[in-house]
Specification:
The complex is a heterodimer. The longest helix of chain A is centred in the C-terminal third of the chain and has 16 residues. By secondary structure, chain A is α/β, with parallel strands linked by helices. Chain A has seven helices and nine strands, in the order βββαββαβαααβαβαβ. In chain A, helix 3 packs parallel to helix 5. Chain B is globular, with a radius of gyration of 19 Å. The chains are: A alpha/beta, B alpha/beta. The interface between A and B is medium-sized, with 29 and 30 residues.
Chain lengths: 227, 260
């Protein structure tokens, strides 16, 4: 489902003397449907950079990232937008929303954008928020004022609202208590069971051991760091 | 997967090629081209004098470009007769001004402002016009009992929402917006952004929005075009351009934003 081949990237900082910083070379990995692959490597090795390239918000220099039938490296913006709507989900560490929008709508939005009827989309959103222990009295409020852990759970509910065939998870269990961590791990296991291909970063070793089928050390893809 | 297929096979609603506008020796905009697809929001950013407003006014038919082509639904807009052009501006196209005073008739009631555009496309039944106007005031969160008030009695945020109702009531397919949240308080901006996002999604609007506010485009635009000295220096997916800018000017623009 996700196949990365010979991927490379460097950043050119035009306003800092035009210095070019190579950050990735020769990256390759595959994630099959129903499989969860964890990215490991020390901080700064390029785990997040790789995830952002897969999602299309960092440009690749060379190589390919195939998700289903789309190569993110060469795809038109609108192909990537369509991919993100229907195929490729992303749970980031930060919730970015329009202020004032109620939590229930924030979670239902990915379904509404896919054309799911509003009552159905809201019912699914409510089910996820309840599972993630967000009190119902908060659903009508904007999540911008919520605590870090609550925002993280709203973000997870939003990321799991649609059954994406491919999912990117960036530290999905960070800042969660034991009970909510368990809910998230179950959501990940359910997504795998329905055949989703998952690529994730998990600093939580227990979570990593439980949901990841394989680990890929990105240090091998970092110029100047390769062992 | 059918949605993906649709998104990829659809033809562009607006196709712009080599658009150039000069003011004497000075360049307004130069060689601008892009395709806008149904339901897509394109943000245009750049500092004052970058040519983004000139581009928007050429696109929207307020100024005639010196060179280039503008195809709307496959038709060459620059070859339109005056009558055809007016019909387009009243029906399929809409234009939201930065200052609501430029897009509203300040001496006419709120209901009249919305109804007037309906009448311009042929509506004649008073009761039906008033009902549609009331419905639209509700959609932009203006209470029905304000329908007979003049916009001069409204706050800036309400005026802007009224301008949006006036523009969208005729069911346009393409909306041009010039700094629609400029000049509004931050809390009012958020409300307007939320409203615009909902309308764009529910009505499947295509939008070209000019702004200098990167936070606004991040929340509203699917794609982004960065302009400098009349030329497009970078374009791409909005989050890609903002998170991984390639051009020196875009890098400067993104790194100059104050973090809150």
């Amino acid at each position: 489902m996700i196949e990365i081949r010979n991927l490379s990237k460097s950043f050119t900082l035009h306003n800092q003397g035009g210095v070019a910083i190579p950050v990735m070379a020769g990256a390759h990995l595959r994630v099959a449907g129903g499989e969860c692959v964890g990215l490991v490597g020390r901080s700064g090795a390029g785990k997040s950079t790789l995830m952002r390239m897969v999602y299309g918000n960092y440009l690749a220099e060379a190589g390919s990232i195939r998700i289903g039938e789309v190569d993110v490296v060469t795809a038109e913006p609108r192909q990537i937008l369509a991919l993100r709507r229907a195929v490729l989900g992303h749970v980031s560490q930060f919730l970015r929303v329009v202020p004032r929008v109620p939590t229930l709508e924030v979670v239902a939005e990915p379904l509404l954008r896919l054309g799911t009827p509003a009552p159905e989309a809201r019912a699914r959103a409510a089910e996820l928020l309840a599972r993630l222990n967000i009190p119902e009295r908060l659903w009508r409020l904007s999540p911008t004022t919520f605590s870090g852990g609550e925002q993280q759970r709203v973000n997870i509910a939003r990321g799991f609202a649609h059954d994406y065939p491919a999912l990117l998870l960036d530290e999905p269990t960070a800042s969660l208590d034991a009970q909510n961590r368990e809910v998230v791990l179950r959501l990940i296991e359910e997504a795998k069971a329905r055949g989703a291909a998952i690529l994730g970063i998990f600093h939580d070793e227990g979570a990593r051991d439980r949901v990841c089928d394989r680990l890929v050390d990105v240090t091998g893809f970092t110029p100047g760091l390769a062992a | 997967m059918t949605l993906m297929q649709n998104a990829i096979t659809a033809a562009p609603l607006l196709s712009v090629q080599g658009l150039t506008k000069r003011y004497g020796a000075r360049i307004g905009c130069m060689g601008v081209g892009f395709d806008l697809y149904p339901g897509e929001v394109l943000g245009i950013v750049g500092e004052s004098g970058s040519g983004k407003s000139t581009l928007l006014s050429c696109l929207a038919g307020h100024q005639r470009p010196d060179e280039g082509r503008i195809l709307f639904d496959g038709a060459d807009v620059l070859a339109f007769s005056e009558a055809e052009r007016r019909r387009l501006l009243r029906g399929d196209w809409a234009y939201v001004h930065q200052n609501p005073r430029d897009g509203l008739r300040m001496g006419v009631s709120a209901g009249g402002n919305v109804g007037e555009r309906l009448m311009a496309v042929g509506a004649r039944n008073y009761a039906a016009i008033r009902e549609t106007a009331t419905d639209w005031l509700g959609r932009v969160e203006i209470a029905a009992d304000r329908i007979d008030d003049r916009p001069s009695a409204f706050s800036g945020g309400m005026q802007q929402r009224l301008q949006i109702a006036r523009n969208l009531v005729t069911g346009p397919r393409l909306v041009f917006m010039d700094e629609p949240t400029g000049g509004l308080d931050v809390s009012v901006q958020a409300r307007l952004l939320d409203l615009l996002r909902g309308l764009v999604r529910d009505l499947g609007l295509s939008v070209v929005i000019v702004t200098h506010d990167l936070a606004v485009v991040r929340l509203l635009a699917d794609r982004l075009m960065v302009m400098k000295s009349g030329r497009v220096v970078e374009c791409g997916l909005t989050d890609q351009v903002l998170d991984d800018p390639q051009h020196a000017y875009t890098q400067l623009l993104v790194s100059s934003v104050l973090q809150v």
